[in-house]
Design a protein that fits this description.
The protein is of the alpha+beta class. The protein contains 9 helices and 16 strands.
């Protein structure tokens, strides 16, 4: 049997996280596995403990003397972000019990959503054959190129952060920030309400993006803009297909940009984003890259702080790299 670490967000899914976390722990133990509860009183401490468990540091993660065979997170995309920062770049696979509001990463992986028993069963079935996918790092851009690219779970001005879904840096980021501040309504409806509020005050932002494709040749997109998303996965906001053709395992990031739309123009595009139709608009362009630098210019208002996997990252300038095959997940489609 395996040793499995579990991190629970007790506030996920309208407060169901605590109950669903207890059920996850019980189901794993009933299956005969050694289970170590690595949950902490807050997310930074939980990340520290989870990271310690993956790296066999028993001072912070008692009960993990021989390391973890897997790390399972219980919650939404924020907990997935925590798990990715604990295991990316290692051989420890990540299991996801998706009981949050958005669950975009779980949906992209074809995992059960808001079904604890099915999620645990899927994770255990994949223990012997985890799926390998890409992950990305984001850090503050240093033009001198002297900053070390050493992923860790801290802010990008001190060390890079991993993410596996989407980094938002335009009105999509402003919507994310507003949705996080709102307490009503619950679920994806909160994102819709935040969209309406941000569109009412929208003005174009100023950007310079240096995009490097698989051929290693950079090119620059510089313009006032409204939407900037760097996507490893296709979804944000509980089902918004921001990058409908993005694949988790193609070794590329889909950078979705929209030019200087008016408020009315942006409002017309947003409804089609749930089906991914916005990418056909003449002002929207998709670039496939391995590396992108995002900078602010004076051609528009200052862009909002960026978010990745729905979690706050920080202000531009930022630098994002894709790392092919950096993450193992307990999801269907793996090789034994």
């Amino acid at each position: 049997m395996s040793t499995i670490g579990v991190v629970v967000n007790p506030t996920a899914g309208r407060g169901r996280g605590r109950r669903d976390g207890a059920r996850t722990l019980a189901l794993l133990r009933e299956a005969g596995h050694t289970v170590v509860d690595l949950s902490g009183p807050n997310l930074p401490l939980a990340l520290e403990t989870a990271h310690a468990g993956v790296h066999h540091d028993t001072r912070l993660a008692p009960g993990t003397a021989d390391g973890l065979d897997a790390l399972v997170v219980v919650g939404g995309d924020g907990m997935v972000h925590l798990g990715v920062n604990a295991v990316a770049g290692t051989t420890t696979p990540l299991g996801i019990v998706a009981v949050g509001s958005g669950n975009d990463t779980a949906a992209a992986l074809g995992l059960p959503v808001r079904d604890v028993r099915a999620a645990v069963t899927t994770a255990l079935d994949a223990l012997t054959a985890p799926r390998t996918i890409d992950a990305a790092t984001v850090r503050t851009h240093h033009p001198s190129g002297t900053a070390a690219d050493t992923p860790a779970g801290t802010a990008p001005d001190t060390a890079p952060r991993w993410f596996c879904g989407v980094l938002s840096a335009g009105i999509d980021a402003a919507v994310n920030a507003r949705a996080n501040r709102q307490r009503w309504p619950r679920g994806s409806a909160r994102y819709v309400r935040a969209v309406v509020a941000e569109l009412a005050r929208f003005v174009p932002y100023g950007y310079r993006l240096t995009l490097t494709g698989a051929d290693g040749h950079p090119h620059v997109w510089e313009s006032p803009g409204s939407l900037v998303a760097v996507a490893n996965g296709p979804r944000i906001g509980g089902g918004v297909r921001i990058a409908p053709d993005a694949r988790l395992d193609d070794g590329l990031l889909d950078v979705v940009v929209a030019g200087p739309l008016t408020r009315l123009g942006a409002a017309r595009i947003f409804p089609g984003m749930y089906a991914g139709r916005h990418v056909h608009h003449r002002s929207v362009h998709v670039h496939q890259v391995t590396h992108v630098v995002l900078e602010a210019t004076t051609a528009g208002h200052a862009p909002p702080p960026a978010f990745a996997d729905g979690e706050h990252i920080g202000n531009l300038p930022l630098e994002v790299h894709v790392h092919p095959g950096a993450l193992r997940v307990l999801a269907p489609g793996g090789e034994p």
